[in-house]
Specification:
mainly alpha, Serine Threonine Protein Phosphatase 5, Tetratricopeptide repeat, 7 helices, globular
Length: 147
């Protein structure tokens, strides 16, 4: 299900929007959208670099859900290539955020994701999230609703 055309379809408009109307929020969402393009090309270092840039951008703001979503996505990328310590680090960070925000729902999501990601055998190429490839999902990989 790795589709370079689909990842480019979302990364390019996010980059364009951030370039035309630069703001911290737009740049952060562009970094997260850009994370998936290198994944389908097998460039995991670039993907995780984009994830780290997005996490750093979300951290000072009020986008708690988006920050946690990005941290969990980064864990998924890392588990896809069996970077065990990075998976643990990303999931530990998500767990800490859940505690910091006092969110039982987020803590449950982190626990569930930890089990899903660590218990499933994966190929060496992580899959792009199904929502990215599904035309009917209603959401873009940047997290914004599609028209």
């Amino acid at each position: 299900m790795s589709d370079p055309a689909a990842t480019a379809h979302w990364a390019e408009p996010a980059d364009s929007c951030a370039g035309q109307l630069p703001s911290p929020g737009r740049l952060v969402f562009a970094h997260r959208a850009r994370m998936w393009d290198p994944v389908v090309r097998g460039d995991i270092d670039s993907a995780l670099h984009s994830a780290r840039q997005a996490v750093e951008g979300f951290a000072p703001g009020e986008e708690r859900v988006e920050l946690c979503r990005t941290v969990l996505d980064a864990a998924e990328v890392a588990v896809g290539v069996r970077r065990t310590q990075e998976v643990v680090d990303w999931l530990d960070r998500a767990e800490a955020l859940a505690g910091q925000y006092g969110s039982a729902q987020l803590a449950d999501t982190v626990t569930r994701r930890r089990h899903e990601l660590t218990d499933q055998p994966r190929s060496l190429a992580p899959e792009v999230p199904r929502a990215l490839l599904s035309a009917g999902s209603g959401r873009s990989p940047t997290g914004s609703a599609r028209a």
